[in-house]
Amino acid sequence: MSVNTDVARPTLAVWKFASCDGCQLSLLDLEPELLALARAVRIAHFTEMTRAHVEGPYDVSLVEGSITTDDDVTLILNVREQSRYLVTIGACAANGGIQALRNFVEPGDFPSMVYAHPEYLRSLDTSTPISQHVAVDYELRGCPIDRFQLLEVILALLAHRRPIVATHSVCQECKARGTVCLAVSGEIACLGPVTRAGCNALCPSVGRGCFGCFGPSEAANVNSLAQWLHSHGHSEVTLARLLQTFNAAAPAFREAATNLVATTVALGENPRARKEQS
Q1: Domains and CATH numbers, the chain
Q2: How far is Cα 33 from Cα 10, in angstroms, rounded to an integer?
């Protein structure tokens, strides 16, 4: 008797919301591993790779991007209902992404700077992570994510075990590859001590300070690091800008950045003017 292998294989779906597609491309970058994965699972929905679509339910759904429209809210509720495991991939899905900078200003400020007719846009006033709308089974950090960490998460969930993904800081990766601490030796503003590992300390390895692509590490004391960096010559404005990038809305980064901006305002300085002068 023949067996329908498509029915027997677990299903994987990949969904896109407000994002740059970089994390989905990380899955495609697996190349030979992706071919092996495609034999083990049935890719039911992945518009970055194929127009084919299979109706749910799905064993694992990977979700890239943040929620920025009413339609996004409707879709993510449906994805959650159809998915056994829902995994967010990347800074946009976990913390709202760089587009979450809109959360720090008045509604409509940014569109009016970019579009001739912003009144034609239909979007929410905020960019929010997936976890603010539905339950998330696992969050994989990064901008973009590490493709081998993604493969580990997929295989772990299909095997019903906990993924083995690093939660320590970038500093440990610097030590592992023999990179001298930039913050101490080079007087460079670096977020490595409070940023989750996953990039293999790419930026510090070429003499550039970490700017937090993988978001806050576990138990990160961002306020303490900001105070230390400020005491070593880095201005509040510089540090606030460093924290307000891909993971600006991550609670630990947002709190520290807000405190830095408040200090600047209390000193009678204009952060926007300082930014323009720099």
Answers
A1: 5-158 (3.40.50.700), 170-277 (no CATH)
A2: 17
pTM for the structure as a whole:
0.88
Our CA dihedral for 171, 177, 183, 189, rounded to 10 degrees, sits at -80
**Upper half-sphere CA count for residue 4 (Cβ side, 13 Å):** 4
Q: Residue 154 in contact with residue 37, Cβ under 8 Å?
A: yes
Q: Quick check: 256 pLDDT over 90?
A: yes
* Tens digit of each residue's pLDDT (9 = 90 or more) over 23-47: 999 999 998 898 899 899 999 999 9
Model pLDDT, residue 3 = 42
pLDDT digits 0-9 by tens, 55-78 = 999 999 999 999 999 999 999 999
